[in-house]
Amino acid sequence: MIKLLLRKCLQGLMMIMIVSAVTFALLGFAGGDALTQLQDNPQISKDTIERLRSVYGLDQPLPIRYFRWLSGAVTGDLGESTYFRVPVSGLVWARSISTFLLGTAAFAIALTLAVPLSLIGVRYNSTTIAAFIDFLILLTASTPRIVLALVALAISVRLSASAMDSSSAVLFWLAALALSAPMISAFLAQFHGELQRTMREDFVKLARAKGLSEGNVILRHAIRPALNPVLTIAGLSLGGVLAGSVIVESVLGRQGLGTLMVSAVRARDLPLVMGVVLFTSTAVWLGNAIGELLQAVNDKRIRF
Amino acid sequence: MNEYLSIDGFSRRRTDRVAVFGWLVIGLFALCAVFADFLAPYDHSAQSRFEPSAPATTIHFSGLTPIVHARHVEDPLRRTYTEDTSVAFPVGFFVRGYSYKLLGVGETDIHLFGVRSTSGSVPRINLLGTDQLGRDRFSRLLYAVRFSLIVALIGVLVACLVGILIGGVSGYAGRLMDTFLMGVTDAMLALPTLILILGVRAAFPLELPMTRAALLLLLIFALTGWAEMARLTRGLVLSLRKREFVVAAVALGVSQTRVLFRHILPNILPSLRTRAFLLLPTFLLAEVALSYLGVGLQEPEPSLGNMLTAASDLDQLRMQPLSVLSPALAVFLFTLGVRLIGRSERA
Questions:
Q1: Among A8, A40, A97, B166, which is 20 to 30 Å from B314 by CA?
Q2: How many other CB atoms are found less than 10 A from the CB of residue A161?
Q3: pLDDT at A103
Q4: Within an 8 Å CB–CB cutoff, is residue B240 touching chain A?
Q5: Which residues of B touch A281 (CB under 8 A)?
Q6: Which of A157, A247, A265 lies at the smallest CB-CB distance from B201?
Q7: Burial (CB count <10 Å: 0-12, 13-18, 19+), residue B183
Q8: What's the CA angle centered on A222, arms A217 and A228, to 5 degrees?
């Protein structure tokens, strides 16, 4: 267990280093920084800009700047946003709360749909329910988040004659639903498929043979091993949720991590871009690690 | 398609029918993309200043001939229109309009349908209404399908080339290289791609002309989209590298690159092709997302993404939700079509 934790941490650290280095290098090579725009201002001389550059350390070579940024990032200092003029870390934290809530709601929707539906499908073993699950998987897999978000927008505009109120509960749940669609399909496909496979295993036959009712067989014996792939997928879909939040939040006008990234890109606010990239890749790594740990806790057969 | 996997003939036929529907949808999209200028009654950037944000034209019938009437703005603020029913203009097929090059060669001005000009000013027929600049939304949609599909298609090709190269090297070169490359691949797979794409996009200027924006998108796709293909290629290469014909080639002294590209690659190409096809919606969606956010393909050229920005005009969205969201419907249909085909390929 400890070994697994250590390995995961090392992997995550490597991933975050690579991603941040690549993004930093790309942003650096493309040229242009927060001071480039000042060149258009006739009241600011070239000397002033050069002096400002050296004050902010922008005249240093790229590796040194990356190292400075990294040592700041370790202590939680991600620099100052050139557009919002506040520290990046505070901005990212504040915005991530709303995205976190939305993502949690999306996870909840996907789980409450996928788990009971799969259980019912396996318990009654009916072709109608199986066909319905198949249809739902296909439908949710082929409805992109941006389409759902736009439909949600159209619905909410229809519902309320007045201007959109981004704080309304209806809009929140519509946004969460739009965010959850690909997860519904992934969870359903994994959980239903794995449950069906598990029901053919020997230990399930044994449980039936000792006289347990079908419902008890599922609840007490089949669920746990079948839950494992769902945990993997849940950990992995965190990246999708964060990417999807960019779209859903933009369409439905919510303030969150996604819209923060969009405004950072639009304003070419490089410290903020780096901050959001660092935050999301850390969050994704955490999600994956938690998913794998839960698996090990859930299924004692897994040894690392 | 594997005939041996079917249990009975019936279920086999049913999955095929579903796949046929998928192929029909994809074929329709291909036709729209290739013949966009023939199918579209108007040029995608031709503005009709007196008809901004108009609803779809109502088509009346006089006997068996479809006719349309000219319309005038009644209330410019609420964008309501009244029809002038005194003069009827017949709608016909193969009507002359603006000239274009069919398939890039033959210059012609015949369009599939349009309003026949009898005299003077002819009203425009807008099947899906017009946008805020009075441009025909139906024509724009057809061109948008063309532009977006081209970008998605080339994007898949570029990303797949990178992925196949990385995956092939990773699977064939062995331990240390494999561990490193697959570590990077796993990281790429787990990361939120769109945020990564946006991060790369931030390195370049916001406003770009059409061709440069498209090239930039392709570059970004190549940088961020190769991971899935690399994973698949590596697995396939690993499964082949110990087979007799590969060992025989190595024993004959064939160079490593040649073994990889001339002996292994041709054998795994069919699986790679299927997966590449299934990746099409992913890249189409990336284009849609970026253009919707204003950092992808930009006006005046239409793309499925930048057409959807019209949805931020909430009044129009309320009045004509179907017209405004028609590009979203197109995206949905395309994804569905590819999924349906993919399902039967896997079955």
A1: A97
A2: 7
A3: 92
A4: no
A5: 191-192
A6: A265
A7: middle
A8: 165
CB pairs under 8 A between A and B: 141
Contact at 8 Å (CB) between A83 and A269? yes
In B, minimum Cα distance to A157 occurs at B318
B contacts of A158 (beta carbons < 8 Å): 318, 321
Write down the pTM of the prediction. Answer: 0.85
* Pick among B207, B293, B318, B335 to test the A interface (most A CBs inside 10 A): B293
| DSSP, residue by residue, B277-329 | HHHHHHHHHHHHHHHHTTSSS-TTS--HHHHGGGGG-HHHHHH-HHHHTHHHH
B113 φ, ψ (degrees, to nearest 5): -145, 165
pLDDT class for A105, splitting at 50, 70, 90? Answer: very high
Nearest to A53 by CA among A68, A32, A74, A81: A32
- Is the peptide bond between B66 and the residue preceding it cis, with omega within 30 degrees of 0? no
Contact B143, B301 (CB under 8 A): yes
Nearest residue to A228 via CA among A256, A177, A265, A187? A187
Task: Please give the DSSP secondary-structure letter assigned to residue B221.
Answer: H
Q: pLDDT (tens digit, 9 = 90+) per residue, B197-239?
A: 887 777 777 777 778 888 888 888 888 888 888 888 888 888 8
> Taking CA B264 as the corner, what is the angle to CA B261 and CA B265, rounded to the nearest 5 degrees?
55
